[in-house]
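I can't quite decide. Please look over this sequence plus structure tokens:

:::
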Amino acid sequence: MAREFSVIINKPIEEVFGYSCDVMNLSDWGEGIINVDITSDVKEGVGTRFVITNNAMGREQQFINEITEYEENERFSFRAEGSYTSTRTFKEVDGGVLVTERLEGAATGIKRLMSGIIVRFASKMHHNSLTELKRILESEE
């Protein structure tokens, strides 16, 4: 199961990509994200591993993630261990940047039975997060 959603952000592509793909900024605009810790020696780009601590459904949870694609100003993907993959693409459009995010279930084992629920829940959070990203970037002067 996959979900996809888009937003146009009226800022230069370098600014949108740079801010949104720096995982240390996720707690500023990611819904429910309390903290982000990079756990790998690689601090940027493919191979960067990071732990997101979030508050979802009244519970604090941690998710291990790894950046799997990083093409500057074009594409950014990460895999949330045992649950889903998120791919964000960036395309210049008149006056801004079209940011499209696609979530795909990547659960294994018993979690595979819940893959649809996981993707639906994550997609709501990611959609709200993109809306917040737009608000933050467009409010900066």
The mean pLDDT is 86. The longest helix spans residues 115-139.
